[in-house]
Amino acid sequence: MGTEIIRAAVDERGIAEVVVDCPPVNALPVAGWWQLAETLGRLSRDPDVRVVLLRAEGRGFNAGVDVKELQSDTGHAAIIGANRGCFAAFAAVYECAVPVVTAVQGFCLGGGIGLVGNSDVVVASEDAYFGLPEVDRGALGAATHLSRLVPQHRARAMMYTCATASAAELHAFGSVFDVVPADRLRERALEVAADIAGKNPTVIRAAKEAFNGIDLWDVKRSYRYEQGFTFEINLSGVAAEVRDGFGGRTGGEG
Q1: Would you give per-residue pLDDT tens digits along the chain (254 residues)?
Q2: Can you say how many angstroms the Cα of residue 155 is from the centroid of all Cα atoms in its chain?
Q3: Which residues, 6+ apart, have CB-to-CB distance to 215 below 8 Å?
Q4: Could you give the CA distance from residue 16 to residue 201 in angstroms, rounded to a whole number?
Q5: Contacts of 129 (CB under 8 A, 6+ apart)
Q6: d(Cα 189, Cα 117) in Å, to the nearest integer?
Q7: Can you tell me whether residue 179 is helix, strand or coil?
């Protein structure tokens, strides 16, 4: 796994910028999810880090897991790896000791919903849209995280129909903090991150831990429950049939 897929740097303000760059659509292979989890875990343990900014290069934030990697596997190693890698990456966002600000442009699909739904603050570009095309990919998962972004009935409709929601809609729901032109996305996300970084770091870390402690449900347990159905569909052979019908394009699961 080349370091170019996930890179990170910490500036003098304590802002850790984590960048995903996996062309063409930022659909991560199994190793990519693990590298993201490990990077976030390392930054979480760094006392000099005050906030994390998670963003991506390219025309979209994230298209989920690499479906081609699943299709090329004749056994179950790839789906197990994707399940565990996504679980680790989503958990690393949620459990990061400092707030995670996520900057979203273009498409945010499948596993991207898991990252965004577990983050603390979301800034999106005007062209951003969010969805779970899992049903069309022969999978389930990340309904846990979608339910943190949109109301319950909207989440169900989006899962069953694979419909998407715009950044403007999520802003109206209150789950996206700000929506800006695409050319201002990184700048605005850094402004939000800098505001957090300027606070007392001990208080901010305590606030993050306190919010996680009063969460209404256990996101790790909830997502792990969902993953059981993804694996069941794969064992039945139905997932492979649906993925083959998908046509071999890349992206989309969580």
Answers
A1: 344 799 999 999 999 999 999 999 999 999 999 999 999 999 999 999 999 999 999 999 999 998 888 788 778 888 899 999 999 999 999 999 999 999 999 999 999 999 999 999 999 999 999 999 999 988 889 999 999 999 999 999 999 999 999 999 999 999 999 999 999 999 999 999 999 999 999 999 999 999 999 999 999 999 999 999 988 998 898 888 887 776 444 445 55
A2: 16
A3: none
A4: 14
A5: 106, 107, 108, 164, 165, 166, 167
A6: 16
A7: strand
Which backbone phi and psi does 104 adopt, to 5 degrees?
-120, 125
Q: What are phi and psi of 66, to 5 degrees?
A: -80, 100
Contact 116, 72 (CB under 8 A): no
Identity of the residue numbered 81: G
Distance CA 248, CA 33 (A): 20
Report in angstroms the alpha-carbon separations of 122 from 110, 171, 174, 186.
16, 9, 10, 12
